[in-house]
Amino acid sequence: MKSEYGFYMQQQNALKASGNGRFFTDQESRYTEPFQIYGNLYYVGDSWVCVHLVDTGDGLLMFDAGNCGAQAMLVYSIWKAGFDPADVKWIILSHGHMDHFGAANFFKRMFGTKIYLSEPDAKMFREHPEQSMVQISGNCMDELFEPDVEIHDGERLKFGSTEIQFYLVPGHTEGCIACFFDVTDGKEKKRVGYYGGFGFNTLQKDFLMEIGDMTFEMRRKYLNSLKKVRDEEVELFMGNHTANVDLLAKRKYMQEHPDKNPFLDSQAWKEYLDEKYEELLQLMNDPRQN
Ligand SMILES: [Zn+2]
Asked: So which cofactors does this thing need (predicted)?
């Protein structure tokens, strides 16, 4: 038995030492106290990967399901935020990468939670499961699953009292979603904008060549996606990773200034999408990337 545990630890240590492996181990080191962002919108993610909870009045709607290996931490965060994890009726996945669907399968099995994933990323699960990157997580809790509902471009779906407008914004993956909906504090409504994946890791030359995109079509798709949703009216920009919205700094500010809410900012969405647009053009003009 001892030697088997030693073998396991050897694997874990090798994973931590390997490039991105450290992001998929020691999840508790990224624990972040959950908090109310605005009205019926709560944050229950960690310091790196976002998870948001919307209290729809008829069950909880969760955006993403945390990093792989972070299932227990997410369940704990939901309790800590004052909710019962068994009330999570729906999970909307931003895209099909394993740092976002960590607890999805657990919720599906445990509570019968319905999982929503875009049609292109559901296809990726079936035809190219390796592109979900689940195999590098090194965590036995992780496995792919059949989503219950596939999301299509332009669809409008209802979750309790919350109605969501969906668009597909291919780029980071073929099936990244963007969506728009209202949250409320009971008196006022604010329009949320969510963009489900900004990372350029999947736009690097080596990555694109490996998946057979020899003309780097995905980069042009990404630019078009940013343009497609840039002019949407957004009063509250909901991040996919904490860095997108400087979430930890905003949370700290809110604690120090309880009468202010830095998440309410009608420019943040446009500014960040413009920033990404410029960054991507730079990458496309980089001779090492061509
Ligand atoms: Zn991703």
From this structure: Zn(2+)
Determine the distance separating the centroid of ligand 1 and the alpha carbon of 147, expressed in angstroms.
17
| Contacts for 153 with CB less than 8 Å, ≥ 6 apart | 166, 167, 168
How far the first Cα of the chain sits from its last, in Å, is 51
Q: 86: which DSSP letter?
A: G
Give 38's Cβ-side CA count (13 Å radius): 21
Domain extents in the chain:
2-289
- CATH no. of 2-289: 3.60.15.10
pLDDT tens profile 14-70: 877 777 777 777 888 999 999 999 999 999 999 999 999 999 999 999 999 999 888
- Evaluate if pTM is beyond 0.85: yes
Tokens linked to 233 = 């009216």
Length of the chain: 290
DSSP class of residue 197?
-
d(CA 65, CA 102): 5
The CA angle 105-111-115, to the nearest 5 degrees, is: 45
